[in-house]
Design goal:
This protein has helices spanning about 15-30, 40-55, 105-115, and strands at about 5-10, 65-75, 75-85, 120-125, 130-135. The protein is of the alpha+beta class. The longest helix has 20 residues, at about 40-55. The two termini are about 15 Å apart.
Length: about 140
């Protein structure tokens, strides 16, 4: 496989785009690594869902689109980022027992750490931000 693979999609910041982002990343991973560890793929799917939901809900209509980037480096590190143009950075909120939302970033961070990865937030030149997860990735052995 190539040393570096990249795929991206830009979607409107609407709730309907969240499952579309999930399907897109799932399709990319299936193309790059058929037979990849199902637990890792499920974790990535959940992480993308949470990141896309945050991009839609927390930009309050001030970011008309969001972009999902997927990078695979040397078949050993998978990076997924969601970029929006809103200047406000995500904040981890205290997890109140009665709270129905606000746990997405905690879920993302826990899944990344559990998989041996990390979460980071970086500014964009346009004033928005990209929330990245980086995870170890093992491509299936050729048969």
């Amino acid at each position: 496989m190539a040393d570096h693979q990249h795929a991206c999609v830009t979607l409107p910041s609407t709730p309907a785009s969240v499952p579309e982002a999930r399907r897109y990343v799932t399709g990319v991973l299936a193309e790059w690594g058929p037979g990849a560890d199902p637990a890792t793929v499920d974790s990535v799917r959940l992480i993308v869902s949470e990141l896309a939901t945050n991009a839609v809900q927390h930009t309050r209509g001030q970011s008309p689109t969001f972009t999902v980037d997927v990078h695979l480096e040397r078949d050993e590190r998978l990076c997924v980022g969601v970029t929006d143009s809103h200047p406000r950075w995500p904040r981890r909120l205290p997890a109140a027992v009665q709270q129905d939302n606000g746990r997405g970033l905690s879920i993302i961070r826990a899944l990344a750490v559990e998989s041996g990865g990390r979460l980071s937030v970086v500014p964009t030149e346009e004033g928005g931000k990209t929330v990245w997860i980086a995870l170890p990735w093992q491509a299936p052995a050729p048969t």
